Automatic annotation (TrEMBL):
The protein's name in its UniProt record: MerR family transcriptional regulator
Keyword flag Repressor: yes
Entries under PANTHER family matching the protein: HTH-TYPE TRANSCRIPTIONAL REGULATOR TNRA (PTHR30204:SF65), REDOX-CYCLING DRUG-SENSING TRANSCRIPTIONAL ACTIVATOR SOXR (PTHR30204)
Signal peptide (from-to): none
InterPro entries: DNA-bd_dom_put_sf, MerR-type_HTH_dom, MerR_fam
UniProt domain HTH merR-type: residue ranges: 9-77
Alphabetized Pfam families for the sequence: MerR_1 (PF13411)
SUPFAM superfamilies assigned to the protein according to its UniProt record, in alphabetical order: Putative DNA-binding domain
Keywords assigned: DNA-binding, Repressor, Transcription, Transcription regulation
Source species of the chain: Halobacillus salinarum
Keyword DNA-binding: yes
């Protein structure tokens, strides 16, 4: 079951209000493949609370002078580290019969 943070239900206008980022900035980060909103049948972008958190991290890094390609690289490394952690946890659970 997915968390409420992952449900894509927030419009770009609301994201703009919550983050203070312009609609153009939000779309730019999508173009740079830093966030991945869903699209409705009519093409409207929908974001999650997790997307908003990601956008705030991106904005903070941009204020520090970090380039978008560096942010994308760091996000990919973070995701890779998370996947490795999940795999190791699964192997430990299987080996020691945890979570039963």
């Amino acid at each position: 079951m997915s968390s409420y943070k992952d449900k894509k239900v927030i419009s770009i206008g609301t994201v703009n209000e919550l983050t203070g980022l312009s609609v153009r900035q939000i779309r730019y980060y999508e173009e740079r493949e830093l966030i991945f909103p869903e699209r409705t049948k009519r093409g409207t972008r929908k974001y999650s609370f997790a997307d908003i958190e990601t956008l705030m991290k991106i904005a903070d890094k941009r204020e520090e002078g970090v380039q978008t390609y560096e942010i994308k690289r760091d996000m990919a490394n973070d995701n890779k580290d998370h996947m490795i952690e999940q795999m190791l946890r699964g192997q430990l659970n299987a080996h020691f019969r945890l979570n039963k």
